[in-house]
From TrEMBL:
<dbReference type="InterPro" id="IPR027417">
    <property type="entry name" value="P-loop_NTPase"/>
</dbReference>
<protein>
    <recommendedName>
        <fullName>AAA+ ATPase domain-containing protein</fullName>
    </recommendedName>
</protein>
<dbReference type="GO" id="GO:0005524">
    <property type="term" value="F:ATP binding"/>
</dbReference>
<dbReference type="GO" id="GO:0000027">
    <property type="term" value="P:ribosomal large subunit assembly"/>
</dbReference>
<dbReference type="GO" id="GO:0030687">
    <property type="term" value="C:preribosome, large subunit precursor"/>
</dbReference>
<dbReference type="GO" id="GO:0005634">
    <property type="term" value="C:nucleus"/>
</dbReference>
<dbReference type="InterPro" id="IPR011704">
    <property type="entry name" value="ATPase_dyneun-rel_AAA"/>
</dbReference>
<dbReference type="InterPro" id="IPR003593">
    <property type="entry name" value="AAA+_ATPase"/>
</dbReference>
<dbReference type="GO" id="GO:0000055">
    <property type="term" value="P:ribosomal large subunit export from nucleus"/>
</dbReference>
<dbReference type="InterPro" id="IPR040848">
    <property type="entry name" value="AAA_lid_7"/>
</dbReference>
<keyword id="KW-0067">ATP-binding</keyword>
<dbReference type="GO" id="GO:0016887">
    <property type="term" value="F:ATP hydrolysis activity"/>
</dbReference>
<keyword id="KW-0547">Nucleotide-binding</keyword>
<feature type="domain" description="AAA+ ATPase">
    <location>
        <begin position="229"/>
        <end position="463"/>
    </location>
</feature>
<dbReference type="Pfam" id="PF07728">
    <property type="entry name" value="AAA_5"/>
</dbReference>
<dbReference type="Pfam" id="PF17867">
    <property type="entry name" value="AAA_lid_7"/>
</dbReference>
Amino acid sequence: AGAWVVLDELNLAPSEVLEGINRLLDDNREIHIAETNTTVVPDPDFVVFATQNPAGGDYGGRKQLSRALRNRFTTMWIDSLSSDELRAILQHKCQLAPSIAAAMVKVYEDLRAHRNVDALLAGGGTDLITIRDILRWAHRKPGTMEECGLEGWCLLGERLRHEDQRSEVAKAIAKHCKTYGVTAASYLETNYREDPYVLEIQKSGGGSGLVWTETMCRMVALVGRCARNGESALLVGETGTGKTTVVQTVADFRRIKLEIVNCHQHTEPADFLGAMRPTAGKKDVRGLIKAKAKRMCDLVGRDVDEEQSVAIVREIVNEYELESDENSEDPPSPKRARVRSELRALWREIADLRADVNHDRSIDHDLFAWQDGPVTRAMRGDGHWVLLDEASLATDAVLERLNSVLEAGERSVMLAEKPGGEVVVGGDKFSLMMTMNPGGDFGKRELSPALRSRMTEIWVKALDYADENDDSEASRLIRKLLSDEAKSLMPSIRRAVA
């Protein structure tokens, strides 16, 4: 039976690629594959759908489709949700109290009435709030009006770069999320030093090398909220403001592996998701098997060489019951449980390598094999974090290949480049973070609204090194890094970097 296919962000693809499916969309309903000289006729139930953002404007990389292609589709313009529809979604899908849902919708209406001036000031975006923003706000499950106001401010206010816009958001939240004693000024002066997430990290001894300035506490509190709610964070700020360090600190505190990918103008989707790479020969694979077998022997205290270790692996598998999900020792000691877990991982890797060696068409016969990229690796299993550093240096078409990974709910990606295709779904601990410098500098630009709306954006303020106050954040940072003898040089250092 035929399937339905959705071509997302259609107008990001080159025109010559899109024109290749013209005959599939007209009355002929067939497609010719020149590389194999075959013609494919689809099933009667096969249907193609496509989505796209408007061409031009803030949506970088989008192109006008040719008339020949557009005429083959039935075009529909999708308007924004009405206030009544949005209120119903918040109450029934997000399970919010009617009063809280109504307050969120009123904030949404107020802010939609004020056009964002960031587009004129190289700040990107034309609206102070989007549908995705209010849904993200609702998914944080505020139980009281006070929580509703604070979470709304963290999401909507802390990403803005200009004080007049921050003030506008603070006034709207204070007006509709009415809480005794809380005004617009209360949100603008939020004290993140007392944030529970910051206090929890400090109490555990995490971030021991950090200087806990107000800016650092603010970033940790905001990124921590993103991590707690399964959101992808986009940190925007000048170089040297601690964006990468904050993500590393939160990942360390949560005991989650963090993989950092540095983006550049030649970054390709394969750098994130993986690609077909040249394979190693059987000799190299057998060497890997011996090395992993030797590691298993070392873990259980067997002093043998690599050649002997392969023969002993089966004894270790039986002794530690590695092929069984159960353990006869109830409960196992912490040390034995840790060793068994590592042994099981090594045994699975050995089994996979042996399967490759024994497979008729693998290793020596296939010159290339699929290798996962950092994002795909992070999504598998329980998952871990990936940080795309300097994300804005990569092109829109490359970054928006990750749109499905950033969607709320099931974060997945279709590996169309992999032979046979595969859908990879992110594990519970998986998260994709990004950092970037603000647009306007050489080579720096703003990300498209379509990508930014899928992430929780955080504006990171630069330190003011010109402030000569000894208690300023810049002074405290410099003082932390200097020895007692060198502290007399603080005024000179401040003037040099200001």
